[in-house]
Amino acid sequence: MVQICTNCGEENPDRFRLCGFCGTALAPPLPAQEVRKTVTIVFSDLKGSTSLGEQLDSESLREVMSRYFDAMREILEHHGGTVEKYIGDAIMAVFGLPRIREDDALRAVRAAHAMQSTLATLNEELEQRWGVRLVNRTGVNTGEVVAGDPTTGQRLVTGDTVNVAARLEQAAPGLDVLIGEPTYRLTRDAVEVEEIEPLELKGKAERVPAYRLLSVKDEHEGLLRPSQGRLVGRDAELQLLVDAYDAAVAERRCVTMTLVGDAGVGKSRLTEEFLRRVGGSALTLHGRCLPYGNGVTFWPVVEVVREAAGISDRDDADSARSKLSTLLGPDHPDVVERIASAVGLSETQFSVQELFWGVRKLLTLLAVNRPLIVAFEDLHWAQDTFLDLVEHLTDTFEGAAIVILCDARPTLLEQRTAWSERPNAAHVLLEPLTAEQSEQVIKNLIGGADLDEGVRAHIVETAEGNPLFVEQLLSMLIDDGLLILEDGHWSAPDGLRDFAVPPTIQALLAARLDSLAREERAVIEPAAVAGNVFPEGAVQELAPDTLQNQVPDLLAALSTKQFVRPDPTERAFEHAYRFHHVLIRETTYDGLLKRARATLHEQFVRWADRVNGDRALEYEEILGYHLEQAHRYLAELGPLDDHGRELGADGSRRLASAGHRARARGDVAAAANLLERAAAILPALDPARLALLPELGEALIDIGQFPAAETALAEALDAAQSTGDPLLEADVGLRRLLLELRSGEVDRWSEEAVPQIAAAIDVFTKASDHAGLARAYRLLGYVHGTACNYAEAAEASERALQHAAEAGDSREQRVNATSLALALCWGPTQVDEAIERTSQILEQVSGNRLSRGWVLCLLAHLRSMKGEFEGARELYRAGLAAMEEMGVGWYVAWTSLSAGRVEMLAGDYPAAERELRRGFELLDRMGERYLRSTVAALLARAVFEQGRLDAAEELTRAAEELASADDVETQAAWRSVRARVLARRQESEDAARLGQDALQLLLPTDSAVMKVEALADLGEVFEDLGDPSGSWALEEAIKLAELKGNIAAAAHLRLALGRLPSAAGPERTAV
Q1: Both 303 and 372 in a single domain?
Q2: φ, ψ at 196 (rounded to 5°)
Q3: CB-based burial label for 1048 (10 Å; 0-12, 13-18, 19+)
Q4: Does residue 803 belong to any structural domain of this protein?
């Protein structure tokens, strides 16, 4: 890049500040800017220097001290240090100003060591001439400081790193050097030390690790790097990917491959080579996971949709949606709706399972005409919900040739140990390259030129098989002029004697960044705030006014230097770049002052608000993150002013809105994360924060984080009581009741819950708070449902539905509608009425596949009670298909309960066993217990009816072991079946006792289905024991079945009753 002089029109090199032809300033000077830097401090002081004044004349003392300071200064500056100041007899030097070097820590340690040997030589001269010897002690420490703009000559540095270096010096014995832990970590391969007891240093709350420096090795140890150019050393891994693609195409199935390796090991390069190899025959799409605070759940889907549909930043919401509709065609409006919701082009909310279905249908449609490859980057940053999506896609794609190619750091496999254990999934671990392969990387980078063998060996040794580190190290050596190309041969004329690479990539990248011109740094810094992938327009907005017109050229220069590169896959913006590696972005970002970061985050949001227009929902989570960061940094710098609080309030509103939407669609993990962050950036008693805490508490309950939920709800309760807010107090009380229920405190839960819920209903009624009333009646329904009092549960659900409708709360409506359907089926409601009401509920939830599948299965059970078995089978199979289509394992397993009961009422016990065993085995693989216990008890019944007594008893024991004590349904069910087993074996005492126990458990309930079942079992127990007195139980069961309208059960029971001889029964138990 050249600069054109506005005075004479001549071209000048980009680093010129004044025109080389006429002397005119080439551009307005950039304002001085303080920076955050990682530097190494050397602090050295003389010990016992006061007594020298008694031994020497003042002129002699001055000469001695001058000789000492000159010698020490020469050593420090020789190794690259800058002597910042003298403090009495102490010297403080900084390594890393004005420019960071990748080996600053090692230079500082070498200097400190050399100061000791130089002092020994100097002391010989001082003793010979003046009869005195000097004793110094030195501390060396590395860490972050705030420094003045080095380009303006400002050298003052401040920070805890300086203080610790001074304290280390004070703790060191005479003529010794103590180095801190950070310095040791950077130089451990080049120094010999003696670890000492951690030190108690003034001003430090905890002891500080320290090491006594013994010697410094001659050889240099260093840093790692990535590989560019032709792919090296990955032939086997590449072939695995090609084979997986070929298999997917040949068998028309989905294959998920995950490349796993450390940062810089070559995951992205291998992906690029694979796509180059096979991409011509396939449609390739890209999506990346962002490290924006774990709230951007579906961002990879957003990028895939944009790329597939050709959506850019110039498109408004209507245009973007139109492109999406065009992509999918007119026959798939339901897919368009769900994808539009997932990517922020629609405010319509769907459950997570519906969104999963929509993504799967989208990708399936895209793979109709040719194979599809979807590359998801950086899965180690993905939210759990997105990882669930990838697993869902892996498990459920059928009839389409699709390869899902992911890359991730090893932490992914630590978080999800079973990630690659699915039949259609595998991972490829990328190991470091061999020395020979690293040498090949260097050859590819330098083309046909040659390279000194010593330099090559130094690079290979330093890189340790990481191709990214190879590339970056070679680039820096060339950029710094240490490698010169002459006659096709790269050499280091001055050698690499003074060049030592530290063992951290941060130090290497920080050194490269410090080599940039001020103008380039002023552009790359706002780019780092914008993100790893950033639009050129955002950088123009954030850059200093005097540079905004130069941003395109400066970004091109940064691309040439391999700091950033154009990103053609980013379709949202006309001109977009990405950092060459995310570590470059992170290092750049860390170099900004916190106040500068806050300002740039805020400016980015204002720019995005202006250019996005009516597409705000699409970016809500990201912009909320930027405001959150701006607020955070200002808060860390001191008490917030009105502006800082306004940033927090704005960020909280956006994060909370995104959280509400996530919860409405059922993405509870993302909801909890977003709501927690939204609450965290508001003042403790801010009304908006207090309003968030109850919903945050319930979201945390939903994801099983009970202690965190208790903390949030306890804080909300304290605030409600201190502010005298009865609505908030009642709302928090309801959420706390839910927490007690979910966390297992159920023995006394119902009796405590009823009065609290009644009080809350009274409070909400007086305030006409329909949302609160919907929650209160939902909890009341849970109370009754827990006790198996389904009529009251149904009534509570209906009341909740009414209030949810008044409040416009679609989530509450859906949840309570399915609860109502369950109560209608299992409770005393007459079958015909239950069918009518359940059919209405089916219409209400028809837009949600998961809820629809749930209600279809309940409707199937009701139809089977009327003896309509074929129709019932069609219904439960449709419900099962809906659940399987959504790919949600727990709900798929739940359908086996309805299917099993339908088949048992139809008398097809083998079919019932097949359905129930499907659910049991699925739940067993999931490690689930609650539902599995119920399925096990019902499966035991199906097995018993086929005469396999031992297997049936074994299943009852599994149900007994799995069931919680308060699970009335399962506790009664396993007792009834085991009683039947024992009666067949003529173990009369235990059989009768268990049968009676099962009935006693159900007497306080109105569960028509379970009471009929328990009575029937008790009657059959008496029959098997040859005791006709059990006829009363069968008669009561027939009455209850007929009252329910369960025609099929009543017919079975009459047959059983007919097998019993007439006898006077015992006094009957009221049921």
Answers
A1: yes
A2: -110, 170
A3: buried
A4: no
Number of domains in the chain: 4
* Terminal-residue alpha carbon distance, the chain: 91
Q: Is beta strand 489-491 parallel, antiparallel or unpaired with respect to 484-486?
A: antiparallel
- Cβ partners under 8 Å of residue 954, min gap 6: none
Measured distance CA(876)–CA(914) in Å, rounded: 14
Q: Which two tokens stand for residue 377?
A: 């980057």
CA distance 169 to 91: 11
Contacts made by residues 66-75, CB under 8 angstroms, sequence distance 24+ = 67/122, 67/125, 67/126, 68/119, 68/122, 68/134, 71/118, 71/119, 71/122, 72/44, 72/115, 72/118, 72/119, 75/111, 75/114, 75/115, 75/118
Domain assignment present for 297: yes
Q: From residue 377, give the alpha-carbon distance in Å to each of 186, 292, 394, 568.
A: 30, 14, 16, 15
Give the integer Cα–Cα distance in Å for 141 and 139: 7
| pLDDT of 477 strictly over 90 | no
How far, in Å, CA of 816 to CA of 808, rounded?
A: 13
Run of H or E residues at 428: strand 425-429
pLDDT above 60 for 501: no
Dihedral sign, Cα of residue 604, residue 606, residue 611, residue 614: positive
> Are residues 519 and 475 in contact, defined by beta-carbon separation less than 8 angstroms?
no
Distance of CA 566 to the CA centre of its chain: 27
103, 615, 934, 997, 1009 from 993: Cα distances, Å: 81, 67, 21, 6, 21
Q: In 10 A of CB 126, how many CB atoms?
A: 18
What lies within 8 Å, CB to CB, of 5 at 6+ separation is 11, 12, 19, 21, 22, 24, 26
Residue 1068 has pLDDT above 80, yes or no: no
Q: Is 720 in contact with 690 (CB distance < 8 Å)?
A: yes
**152: its two tokens:** 């303006």
**Segments forming the whole domain that contains residue 273:** 235-429
Please check whether residue 208 is in contact with residue 446, taking contact to mean a CB–CB distance below 8 angstroms. Answer: no
Same domain, 320 and 451: no
How far apart CA 636 and CA 644 sit, in angstroms, is 11
940 three-state secondary structure: helix
DSSP 1009-1022: HHHHHHHHHHHHHH
Cα–Cα distance measured from residue 42 to residue 165, given in angstroms and rounded to the nearest whole number: 7
Peptide bond into 98 cis (omega under 30): yes
Q: Which ranges of 315-451 would DSSP assign to H, the alpha helix?
A: 317-328, 333-342, 352-366, 384-396, 411-415, 435-446
What b-and-e string marks burial along 527-552, b requiring 16 or more CB atoms within 10 Å of the CB?
Answer: bbbbbbbbbbbbbbbbbbeebeebbe
Sign of the torsion angle spanned by Cα atoms 233, 237, 242, 243: positive
Tokens 């917030």 belong to 640
| Residue linked to tokens 């940053």 | 381
pLDDT at residue 178, as a whole number: 96
Same domain for 175 and 104: yes
Tell me phi and psi for residue 424, to 5 degrees: -105, 20
pLDDT digits (tens, 9 = 90+) for 180-207: 998 998 888 789 999 999 988 877 888 9
Separation CA 72–CA 46 (nearest Å)? 12
729-740 burial: b if 16+ Cβ within 10 Å, else e: bbbbbbbbbbbb
**Domain closes at, from 388, 406, 429:** 429
pLDDT, mean over the chain: 87
Tokens describing residue 1057: 């009753």
Residues 368, 462 within the same domain: no
- Tens-digit pLDDT profile for residues 980-1009: 999 999 988 899 999 999 999 999 999 999
Q: Is residue 593 part of a domain?
A: no
d(CA 619, CA 371) in angstroms, rounded, equals 31
